[in-house]
Amino acid sequence: MPPFDLPEGDPFGPHNLPYGVFSLPGSADRRIGVRLGDHVLDAGAAALTLGSPYATLLGRPTLNPLLAAGRTAWSDVRRALTAWVTVPSHREALEPLFHPLPSVTLHLPFEVADYVDFYASENHARNVGQIFRPDAADSLTPNWKHLPIGYHGRSGTVVVSGTDVVRPSGQRKAPTDPAPVFGPSVRLDIEAEVGFVVGTPSPMGSPVALGDFREHVFGLCLLNDWSARDLQAWEYVPLGPFLGKSFATSVSAWITPLDALDEARVTPPERTHPLLPYLDDAQEEPGGYDLRISVAVNGHVISEPPFSTMYWTAAQQLAHMTVNGASLRTGDLYGSGTVSGPAERERGSLLELTWNGRDTLELPDGKRTFLEDGDVVTMTAWAPGPDGARVGLGEVTGRIVAAD
Amino acid sequence: MPPFDLPEGDPFGPHNLPYGVFSLPGSADRRIGVRLGDHVLDAGAAALTLGSPYATLLGRPTLNPLLAAGRTAWSDVRRALTAWVTVPSHREALEPLFHPLPSVTLHLPFEVADYVDFYASENHARNVGQIFRPDAADSLTPNWKHLPIGYHGRSGTVVVSGTDVVRPSGQRKAPTDPAPVFGPSVRLDIEAEVGFVVGTPSPMGSPVALGDFREHVFGLCLLNDWSARDLQAWEYVPLGPFLGKSFATSVSAWITPLDALDEARVTPPERTHPLLPYLDDAQEEPGGYDLRISVAVNGHVISEPPFSTMYWTAAQQLAHMTVNGASLRTGDLYGSGTVSGPAERERGSLLELTWNGRDTLELPDGKRTFLEDGDVVTMTAWAPGPDGARVGLGEVTGRIVAAD
Question: Fewer Cβ atoms within 10 Å of its own Cβ: the N or the C terminal residue of chain A?
Fold first, then answer.
């Protein structure tokens, strides 16, 4: 019976169970949903139906209370959900609470507290260095191999997959321009990233150790860090990206719990420089994740960035972000930074794929250097799961709308 | 009768009426308070006592609902409060609802949404340029006169005045060090700033025009953007400040409404470069504010930065921050950037006051280059008010606590 008769190897089978927030047609009520195949289970209603103690955590309009509940609760709730979708008597009782995905509206699944973006792919950083500083002796800045470089972004413009992105306007100035000009960005780009969602908070003054990553981070999502390269180039010295990034950041509607990704854990690339103790993960469990990302423009795949190549892990990023005593809040979101593998077809931005517009991408509907109005960018990903199955990540998609 | 028998010219008289959030001894209940002299009026209880329609807006544990209510409500509530503290019959009825300031605990008065920090003082930017790039032809970066440079900071570590600040630890690397070292910051600094608090939100894709500043911004506060210069110097290329700033940002407990500062409005410094239309304030009402700031370490005044010297106004900063379509949320906070006047005694950071540690400051308790453990930094300010009165801003103070 649907939704349980999934095709073998469905990447959203009972081994996955990502969380989202949805509403039904004609209703403004937001509910926590759990995805199974192409259906959404109304998790709060399911908990009530089965008399589960998790009805309070799941009967909410946002994931934040569940995120705040902590690692033990996350595991307990997941164990319960697994039983609900696999034990025949439960399945039967819950069947009316499954809604076909196309029939529901998906919302931003949690309230974003602080948003931080990192810069953790060595291939990406080297490509960017070669493009913007071709004469530098080293394409990496001197700090790059010693700490995961990051900066704060705008949490108020994090939007859920499917939200249109209006082409941002702003100042740009080519080296040959006598003065900056104002107008819609002419170098609108994507950045294929993975976002990590913090559940358990930490108090000010208490750094989070590398080994405590899984106590604090609930799960991950795909993230598109839309970037206006022309705005960014003119504004970013000396205080970093601002308007070139703050117009929109898209995240997938589904948060995949770390518990669904145990088989995807891999050792990160060999560390070429000694690390300070708070970042040294040589003795830790593998901190990388083998996520195979695919980036498509208007349905045409342009890149397949491999997350396993990231130099800095999410655990290292969390340890670094808090080593100065900065607190964590439930709902903090941090992006991995653009994921780029060593091969050309593994680059996670148009900046790299077209070498800052020098080259063009051939799409079925024409050439591209940067994004055109109407372009739809969609990122998908999967990870190795139990028994050869794949764990699907929710897609993140967005369409570029012309500036007014 | 107290609290109404204020000394003549009290900077917290009925012409001021800043808003805060307080709790009474032995109670966890947070209440909106309005300051009159050295007393706090329980504003929600006052509204109930007088049967005011604003009891719902004022009977809250945070200012956010009032901030969200918009300009007309702000003016109406202020008019009501003015009557409550000046009309004798109201004063008599409300006398039991005034609490001496020392008897209450003050809290962060609003929930911070996004926090942005600017870099708007030309004197500060030139000083920093000369210190860090002594060989550059121009101490300002090429973009400085064309746009208000800003970046996002960490909203989760914005704390109320009086909160201790633990000395942050992190990586630093002097040019002569072969590799970075880890430890407590040895160049812990202050930045004297003014923070602007957004009330009325704006939707994504809709820039806020210069002239709409007062529709969106409710008021201002003093802000100390604590900065670990050694951490910052090593990390900030190419993506800007991160851990050097994110450990703590202190704001005053009192938010002064813009309506209390009409007499303090001044024309900003002459613009030396033509501005793009969205930033051109030549035809706008004066966008500067004449705020006289004082910075003291352990009670000894070290600097008196004049806010009227800021090149970029808060209205320009708001227009810039949203020109790419970024939305505003109620509770967004943005800092002016360090306020430094042209004179040595007007510099708003120790970095500038000691020229990056080359010089020392003589304090009664010894010399300083940067902050020592136990140092208490206190910023106060006033502005010209009606009829020669001063409008006091709430102080922002914080004590440095040794790293663990």
Answer: N
B247 plus B323 within the same structural domain: yes
**What are B256-279's pLDDT values in tens digits?**
999 999 999 999 999 999 999 999
Each residue's pLDDT tens digit, A277-327: 999 999 999 999 999 999 999 999 999 999 999 999 999 999 999 999 999
Mutate to test the interface with A, among B229, B230, B242, B275 (most CBs of A within 10 A): B242
Assess if residue A13 is contained within a domain.
no
Report CA B157 to chain centroid distance, whole Å. 14
Q: Which residues in chain A have their CB less than 8 angstroms from residue B332's CB?
A: 156
Nearest chain B Cα distance for residue A2, angstroms = 39
Do residue A204 and residue B321 have CB atoms under 8 angstroms apart?
no
- Residue burial B95-105, b: 16+ Cβ < 10 Å; e: rest: eebbbebeebe
Range of the domain at B381: 115-401
Say if B10 falls within a structural domain.
Answer: no
Residue B314 lies in a domain: yes
Strand intervals (E) in B288-348? 288-289, 292-297, 300-303, 333-335
Is residue B183 situated within a structural domain?
yes
Question: What is the rounded distance in angstroms from the CA atom of residue A384 to the CA atom of residue B115?
Answer: 38
For B21, how many CA atoms within 13 A lie in the half-sphere containing its CB? 22
Q: ipTM score here?
A: 0.97
Residue to substitute from B188, B191, B239, interface A, most A β-carbons within 10 A: B239
